[in-house]
Write a structure and sequence with these properties.
two-stranded antiparallel ribbon; 29% strand; alpha+beta; single chain; 16% helix
Length: 140
C-alpha cells in the first residue's frame, strides 16, 4: 500500500484489515502535503535498491506508523525512517521524525509493503514501487 491505503492495512480502525502489526501515532491524519526527508535502513536499501543518506520524497497525509503489538502478526521492519516532518492542522509536532516511513511485514504466508509517502510521485524514486511489488511477490 501507498499513503492512504496503509490506513486500511493498520490496526486501530474498525474497517482496517489488520495485515500489518502497526497503528498510527495520532488520529490527526491531516499532517499536510509536501516533500519530507527519509533515510533508508540497510534492509530498505537491499529490498528497494536505494542509496545511503537522506532523500526527499512526496508526502500527502500518510500514516505515521508505530507498533500495534498484535501477537498474531509479526512485527514490521522499518525500510525508511522519516527525518523531517509536516505537522499542519493541529497534528502533533515531533510524531514523524524518527518514525518508520516505509515498512515490510509478513502476514500468513505472504509479505506486506507499506509506504506512507509517495515514491511513485517522486523523481528518481519511481523504481521503488516495482522493487516493492517484486519483493511482496517473492520474485527477484
Amino acid at each position: 500500500g501507498i499513503c492512504a491505503g496503509n490506513y486500511l492495512a493498520c490496526d486501530g480502525f474498525s474497517w482496517g484489515v489488520k495485515v500489518l502489526d502497526a497503528k498510527t501515532k495520532s488520529s490527526k491524519w491531516m499532517r499536510g502535503k509536501g516533500d519530507v526527508q527519509v533515510e533508508f535502513t540497510e534492509l530498505g536499501r537491499q529490498i528497494l535498491g536505494t542509496t545511503e543518506g537522506q532523500h526527499p520524497v512526496r508526502y500527502a497525509n500518510g500514516p505515521v506508523f508505530q507498533p500495534a503489538n498484535q501477537e498474531e502478526i509479526g512485527d514490521f521492519k522499518p525500510l525508511a525512517i522519516f527525518r523531517t516532518e509536516l505537522a499542519e492542522n493541529g497534528s502533533p509536532v515531533g510524531a514523524m521524525v524518527g518514525a518508520a516511513a516505509m515498512v515490510a511485514g509478513d502476514y500468513g504466508k505472504g509479505r506486506v509493503f507499506c509506504s506512507s509517502p509517495h515514491p511513485e510521485q517522486t523523481q528518481g524514486m519511481e523504481g521503488i514501487v516495482e522493487r516493492a511489488v517484486r519483493w511482496v511477490a517473492n520474485r527477484e
